[in-house]
Amino acid sequence: MVSSPTVWRRWLAHELTRLRKEAALERGEVAEKLRCSTQKVGHIETAFVPPKVRDLEEILLPLYGVTEDRRPYYVQAAKDARRKGWWESYESEALPEWFSLFVGLEQGASQIRTYEAQLIPGLLQTREYAKAVARRGTAERGQEQIEQHVEVRMSRQEALFRKDAPLRLWAVLDEAALLRVMGDREVMREQLVHLLTVTETPKVTIQVIPFEHGAHAGLMGRFQLLDFPWTGDPGIAYIEHRAGALYLEEPGEIEAHTVAFEHLCALALSPDDSATMIESIAKEYS
């Protein structure tokens, strides 16, 4: 079962939008019943804020014709959506608001497909590798902020090993991510050995695109595709930049990145051959 309040807000927003449309109601009509602005209804339906439990139970669910046996599920979702995620306890210097949103989505995702050109993905980084990346970043963090940043990254990785529905991760890496030295050679050796260890996890797949394979669909930069555990949720394409991130949800945007990822998988080495390549490069760092 999903434990992320961010993803519960997302599910509830999708469901309430669907129910309103099936009931042939406009946002303005719902706003009249709630005695609020149309904008507030829009905020609920875009997961900006969750609905109040009382409004959901006494007004929205009856208004939308939800049967009584289904109502407790929606009410519980609204309560879960209002909880605080573990990541929300960190200061903005360690976890900016735009990235806090991503962590919330990541922690509730059922699957993430990611392409990285220059770095090992955060969910697969060792502590020392993550420190080296944080020290060389453009955020100009102090030592305490670096430690908090790394701690968040290590905590995020628990999603891969949780007992209840562990996150499925499929990562495609450019060979450059294996060769770009972060920290020193020992840090890199440890990092690549860690990749080999993690690939033994049933729900983690890693593929590598060698330099010799030439041009490919990832030359425009890294991206991630997040899938969620409910039928009908189209997912999100996520692109990070220096000052924030883009959360792409239009069908055409998601399809474009899905097709790109499929091409990357087809061009990359197989998971077994990728592991052999990673092992070979790890030995060179010894």
Reconstruct the topology from this structure.
Elements: H1 5-22, H2 27-34, H3 38-45, H4 53-63, H5 71-81, H6 97-108, E1 111-116, H7 127-135, H8 143-156, E2 168-174, H9 175-179, H10 185-198, E3 204-209, E4 223-227, E5 236-241, E6 244-248, H11 251-267, H12 271-284
Parallel strand pairs: 1-2, 2-3
Antiparallel strand pairs: 1-4, 4-5, 5-6
Helix pairs in contact: 1-5, 1-6, 2-3, 4-5, 7-8, 10-12
Number of domains: 2
For the record, the CATH architecture of the largest domain stands as 2-Layer Sandwich
Order of helices and strands: HHHHHHEHHEHHEEEEHH
From the 3D structure, determine the CATH topology of the largest domain. Endonuclease, Chain A
Query: What does the radius of gyration come to?
Result: 21 Å
The portion of residues forming beta strands comes to: 5-15%
Largest sheet: 6 strands, mixed
Q: What does the overall shape look like?
A: elongated
The percent range for helix content is 40-55%
Kindly provide the name of the CATH class of the largest domain.
Answer: Alpha Beta
Structure classification:
alpha/beta
Q: Could you explain the architecture of this structure?
A:
This is Helix-turn-helix domain-containing protein. The protein is α/β, with parallel strands linked by helices and 286 residues long. The protein has two domains: 77 residues, 434 Repressor (Amino-terminal Domain), CATH 1.10.260.40; 192 residues, 2-Layer Sandwich (Endonuclease, Chain A). It is built from twelve helices and six strands. A six-stranded mixed β-sheet has the order 3-2-1-4-5-6, with helices on both faces. Strand 5 and strand 6 form a beta hairpin. Helix 1 packs across helix 5 and helix 2 crosses helix 3. The two termini are 42 Å apart. The model has no long low-confidence stretch (mean pLDDT 93).
